[in-house]
Write a structure and sequence with these properties.
Strand content: 15-25%
Oligomer: single chain
Distance between the termini: 58 Å
Number of strands: 12
Strand order of the largest sheet: 8-5-12
Order of helices and strands: HEEHHHHHHEEEEEEEEEE
Amino acid sequence: MTLESSLLARANSCCELCGASNALAVYPVPPESDGSAEQSVLLCETCQTQLDNPGNEDVNHWRCLNDSMWSQVPAVQVLAWRMLTRLQGEGWPQDLLDMLYLEDDTLAWAQATGDGQNEEAGELHRDSNGAVLEAGDSVTLIKDLNVKGANFTAKRGTPVRNISLVQDNPEHIEGRVEGQRIVILTQFVKKN
């Protein structure tokens, strides 16, 4: 039995992460896959492209990990952990990561590429008091802010609900003030 046919049988001819059934291919899980079925998964083209190109993820596509992270296949668990770690700034992936349990050797394999480790270590968004901000939090402005291009001033004390984190800059968040979506410096907000 070939590698592809054994993976097709294991996965019921579907992508082992999202369940798609078209454009399937064998994906050896880095960094040191030996090419065996235990260290490979069957992925659709969308999952494979997004795994191999960090920063170009369609966040909503990866909501499928809510189901596939419970797979009994360690290689699938490794890829689910890596993608959830990469997307944890979005809020909901962190909730799934908190529920995901990996055996020690599987966790070591998942961490072997360093995927998501840099963001976790040094890229935390913090408010003016040093509290860690997460996507979906509510904050309050602590200073009047002139909003460039929108011709209004966001007043001190204005609540900003359901914030988003700017992934490549820990000093910026995004939120809606007076119906406008604006970028706000974290030094001018406090977490509610």
